[in-house]
Amino acid sequence: MAASVSDLPKSGKRSNAAPPLEPLACGTDDVCIWRVHLDRDDATVAACAAFLSGDELQRAKRLRSAIDRNRYFVARGSLRQLLADWLGTRPSAIEFEYGPRGKPFLRGATPPQFNLSHAGGTALIAISSRRPVGVDIESLNRNLDFAALAGRFFSAAERAALSALPADLQKHAFLTGWTRKESILKATGDGLSLPLDQFEVSLDVDAPARVLSTTLDRIAKCALHELRIDGGFVASLATYDHDPG
Ligand SMILES: CC(C)(COP(=O)(O)OP(=O)(O)OC[C@H]1O[C@@H](n2cnc3c(N)ncnc32)[C@H](O)[C@@H]1OP(=O)(O)O)[C@@H](O)C(=O)NCCC(=O)NCCS
Which of 26, 37, 85, 137 has the CA that lies 20 to 30 A from 74? Predict the structure, then answer.
């Protein structure tokens, strides 16, 4: 019988040691969040791929690298498994719909709210019964020109806050700010269609995760929550307190 994601041991007896679906602590009790290790054995990849819908399989086909394809199968398969457990159904019975900017969601009277983010071989999945969520994860090992990116995407005050930090802390602070901003835009579903300098967030890794200023009503309804992740990553979780009525 093929393995399913939920069959996989959650304590590290596997040769790759890390548990596949690792619950993480976050600073709010109405959101559950898991770290997913995407580089898995062939049986697990096949079990995950078997959950996917026709359009997801088509999308996987368009990914050129086999590594990316397998990671996509495991990320989507794990998302389906977690949502199915939440709803008491089968992973293949989950029917995703997509917002105008591509955010996946479920229809229903009170559907669980969820979001997913990946960076290399790691993904994060957040699920909430109550309010829309956004997650973002980035690798600290990425080779990037963070000063140029801050110049292009951050506000003047954020750029000043970044350059006031010691040089060896700036890249971490940039990625902290970037993930905080992206998680907010993923909670609202805007994605990167909304300019990142339309609102300001705290950048300091050790400062509370906060929206510092915005003129946009929907961003003002978002909150950032503490989310610590080890292994060379930085990540953020945001919730969106909007009235769906
Ligand atoms: C969504 C977006 C912020 C993703 O950022 P990223 O750092 O590249 O990727 P991440 O790994 O963090 O997130 C990707 C996941 O977010 C989810 N997602 C996609 N669009 C989303 C959106 N608008 N809001 C929230 N979540 C979204 C999906 O689950 C996706 O995973 P998938 O590959 O399994 O489908 C970015 O790609 C974006 O802004 N896209 C907007 C595209 C757009 O405006 N399209 C308009 C016409 S369709």
Answer: 26
